[in-house]
Amino acid sequence: MEVHVRIPTPLKKLAGERDLIHAQGETVGEVLGWLTETYPGLKERLRDEQGEVRRFITIYVNDEDIRFIQNLETPLKDGDRISIIPAIAGGSRLGEHLGKLRK
Amino acid sequence: MKIGTLRTIKAFRDWFIIKARNEGSEISVEETHQLLQDKEPVVLLDIREKEEIVLGYIKGAVFLPQGLLHDEVEEVLPDKDVPVVVYCAAGIRSLAAAKLMREKGYAHVFSMAKGIDGWQKAGYEVTSDSELTPDQLNRYSRHLMLREVGMEGQLRLLKAKVLLVGAGGLGCPAGLYLAAAGVGTIGIIDSDRVDLTNLQRQILHGLADVGRPKTESAKEAIHRINPDVKVVTYQERLTSQNVVEIFKEYDVVVDGSDNFPTKYLVNDASFFTGKPYVYGGVFQFEGQASVFFPKEGGPCMRCLFPEPPPPGLVPS
User: Fold this and answer.
1) What's B74-95 look like in SS3?
2) How far is A78 from chain B (nearest CA, A)?
3) A2-102 in CATH: which number?
4) Which of A58, B93, B268, B270 is deepest in the core (most CB within 10 A)?
5) Residue of A nearest to B196 (CA)
6) What is the per-residue pLDDT across B185-227, written as a single tens digit (0 to 9) for each?
7) Alpha-carbon span B141 to B22, nearest angstrom
8) Alpha carbon of B104 to those of A93, B60, B95, B100: distances in Å?
9) B311 lies in a domain?
10) If contacts are CB pairs under 8 Å, which of residues 2-61 in chain A contact chain B?
11) Are B140 and B187 members of one domain?
């Protein structure tokens, strides 16, 4: 089963600078497992110590929030789109942060 | 020669009126009133000049002066199957306007016979609000043409009170557009001062403002665009101590803050004060926008993201 996973900008660096990844798995949980094995840096960002999806991240299969379907057990079809949506702040001081990084 | 020309013009006018009447393109004020009472999906189009509108208009009308009709009617009313009743002062200009619109392909256009004079004489309500000055009618004329805004919408905007949390990358463009659109009261809360690195995107501030409080430079920039707007500034941080007191003065809260503690504070305070929360977040080239209004049955931000990320896990 191949699905398309949309990687949000804040996590791109940990996913080989890619914003769209073709991943394998029969369920959302399997796809996340595949992703974090392929890109180990993502693991800490996406899941907590108990393996649950972190509470500041929402995952959609096509346009549905997985918490309203079968969560990590949600079954997938070929070609499904998975979107990882983290809470994003920003809006004001981004430039300053980047500025500080360069100094 | 001059008299002859006048006669010709008058003769043409009489001919045109008769012709238009014979084609059944007129509707009486009584019929129009009934259509509006029955809430029929009819567009009432006022084609008079702004000096006339200020003296009185029919509630629910859309405004497009006759001179702009030819060039802009298709933009204002893209649906040519919608029934339209055109009115002017006495029902003459509206005949010509209805004819022009039929030529442009509008299927059901009527001119209201006897115009707003006849409407008023029949005892129907004419709304006259001295609230909009001729200058304001000019400034907001492009809004008055839009069915979705119109006179009622513009008056609502002028009475609206919007709070901007942060005058940064999100708050600046939001503030500019709200001020230009004629939002009557804009509150701005921000404790920061303008930095040179802000200027590439925080478009309310200029080079001469570097080092000044953002609230001050934002207020000045808003007044340069629209002196009608009342700007209330709070040069402080939003905290759990001041948030409820500030929010209760406003109709809508627009959050352009740059950090999660403030975003969650805005969410929780909007929830408890029953205000719609306009949320925005941006990271590099990715942005999020939403409106959370649980009082009207929708979710709040915690339904989407129950907890803020701990510092360091997501860059802000």
Assistant:
1) HHHCCCCCCCEEEECCCCCHHH
2) 26
3) 3.10.20.30
4) B270
5) A96
6) 999 999 999 999 999 999 999 999 999 999 999 999 999 999 9
7) 34
8) 51, 24, 14, 6
9) no
10) 8-10, 44-45, 54-58
11) no
